[in-house]
Design a protein that fits this description.
2 domains; single chain; 12 strands; D-Maltodextrin-Binding Protein, domain 2; 458 residues; alpha+beta; three-stranded antiparallel sheet; globular
Amino acid sequence: MYARRILLPLLVIFSLLIVACGAPSDTGTTGTTGRPAASTAASSPAASDAGAAAPATGGQVELRLAWWGSQSRHDRTLKVIEMFQKEHPNIKITPEYGNFDDHWTKLATQTAGGNLPDIVQQDYSRIGEWAKRGLMLPLDDYVADGTIKLDGVAEEQLSGGKIDGKLYGVNLGTNALGVLYDPEMFTQAGVAEPSADWKWADLQQTATTLHEKLNVYGVETFYNAEFFKLWLKDNGKWMYSDDGKSLGYEDDALATQFFQKLVEMQESGATPTREFDAGRGTIGIEDSLIVTKKSAMIFVWSNMPAAISAASGDRELNIALPPQADNGGQGVYLKPSMFFSVAATSKHPKEAAMFVDYFTNNVEANKILAAERGVPIAPAVREALQPELPAIQQKVFEYIATAEKVAAPINPPDPAAHSKILSDVYNPLIDQLLYGELTPEAAAKQFREQATPLLASQ
């Protein structure tokens, strides 16, 4: 039985998150990959001087740009490509986009063939591995000569894209995990909205009550590894050691407790079952259950609410801090939502860097992007953007300001073995756990036994 189900390794939640991955979190509908370049004739707002790089010299330059995300992200990014091409008519950008899983699958094939896109949307969990494999170009020279302008950007906004002191990715936005919820559904159920210091036990009780009162899921499933990390960080630990050669926690009771919570909330109906999620297949963030009021809460990366809000008809949604550990430990942390990196194989790295700068610093372009990838890192962009943002994005900016006050330091990027641990260890064990084939204790024990040699062999 399990052999059949292993073909559905947590695609639903993994796809929603990396974001955002999202989300987060976080991703979106599959979209059209390899679509012809956006038309340079399309009308677009005039770009501001900040972020308008000097025109490229020479003949026609062709670039490829790859990203993952929701349909909202696709549409916004395509418009910005049109704007950039209008300012630089000798540069043609061919977009390649899809959902999170497809993005990395395609990149793996392109890496093997030596045919990576010039500009790649990169994730914090993978940037270290890619840098060490020599797949990305250090961008420091383009920062030094002013092609990519990072004046006034705080170091903590850049550090996530630095590996061994070199800048391999420009952060596209600040992100933090949170809980997006429908306040009207809380009112209907007579349940108090999440407080700033609510605990995991409060989440479980709140979700259960919402389910019982409204016959909806209290919260969408959160078995993805990002939430296991959050649980560990709430308790002062992390999934991996700082050197990435071992697990970052010694007591398997922590993992057992998290797995037990997943089982209990599935059994009570507070979260969807594993069978339900598997039956939905690979979905986008716009297909979240909260969109159609089939759930009242969802864990998200803070760059995801805009797409969810749009899909829900812009109804009122609020964002709360994630629950704390019973001892009050808060594991929320600020994370680069994603990066733009330039492939080491790019034939036109200067022009690729010009687009990265435009995306980062151009105010009119960022009005189109609407902070969908996270709160922008350029101070001038943030200042110009916030007053014009939709209500949900105003809340995201306010949420990031709140999270900054309590955020824990970010941990190092995931080790190279992380992807294999997810696909071969964590995800299959979660399947077995939620299908009733493993106890929480056995899942925690087997996770350590199977992940440890993978980490040690890097």
